[in-house]
Write a structure and sequence with these properties.
There is one protein chain. The protein has two domains: 4-287, Phosphoenolpyruvate-binding domains (TIM Barrel, Alpha-Beta Barrel), CATH 3.20.20.60; 293-347, no CATH class. 42% of the residues lie in helices and 15% in strands. The chain contains 13 helices and twelve strands. It binds glyoxylic acid and magnesium ion.
Amino acid sequence: MRSARDFYRPLAVGAPEPVREVPFRPSRMIHFFPPSVEKMLAKVPDIAPTVDVLLANLEDGVPASDKEAARAGLIHVAQTVDMGDTQLWTRVNSLDSPWCLDDLTAAVLEGGEALDVIMVPKVEGPEDIHYVDRLLAQLEAKAGLTEPLMVHAILETARGVANVEAICGASPRMQGLSLGPADLAANRRMKTTRVGGGHPGYLVRTDPDPDDADAPRTTYQQDLWHYTISRMVDACVMHGILPYYGPFGDIRDTTACEDQFRNAYLLGCVGAWSLHPVQIGIAKTVFSPDPVEVAHAKRVVEAMGDGTGALMLDGKMEDDASVKQCKVVLELASQLASRDPDLAATYDL
Ligand code: GLV
Ligand code: MG
């Protein structure tokens, strides 16, 4: 057992101290790019200023024959591209792959100064985070880094979901979790063949008409991901880390992508992955509070004075609890607005 007093001590001599709070930086979209593809590498300086997080993907989606080229592409970006305010993340290969150790070693020793977060896929339990935690500390010490790298886990196995609270609390390095609906569906043996989103077969149907058994009955498609996202959000909030929706694979279906992102936003997620430039704008809109909600929240907070008691506003009851919700919206709006003059003007903050 580790003493609580040791929790914030570095795990290697000379490694930086772990942070106590996850620093807030906008991360409405984690934009994936394949660093093994020359054409994509060339676009990085133009894409970087348009996104909150740029992620060099080394894992699934990169063919086995390109794994080394992808790693080299990540190092190239880390060493040569000025990212400005944009965060640079990487997704390394899974812990059971032959590439993970070299990915982590190269990322920290050659790109560690520029990297903010390391995304670890297929995390199944706290033991996976403990392995990465110690290894990163050793590498940080060797590289002489002064800021600790944060870790982001993907929730994409049934065991990972069953252990989600322990994963979130496994290290002060934990920055957040993303839902990985494609791998999770496969691992759970769900009978879907898509990357995220709903399924027309997952529905509820109204009762039959007692006077006409053959009359059409309305159906409503249900959200396949509701349970997992809600569980992930609770685990993240309990441990002070950030929840994200992951990928939405149907690039042409921008409407359903927006719906999926918004469901996640309303349930508490702070961002989602973008797999194509068209999804960047969707994530930006969805994960920035709606200006109408911001104006309403401001009105409620002003009307509620010290935030206690109850009053009627436009026929609706407001009290200590609704004012707290309004403050959540306002806090996010002002955090985002402080880095985005267009949003600041829209919100009038
Ligand atoms: C993402 O990695 C997923 O499996 O959905
Ligand atoms: Mg996956």
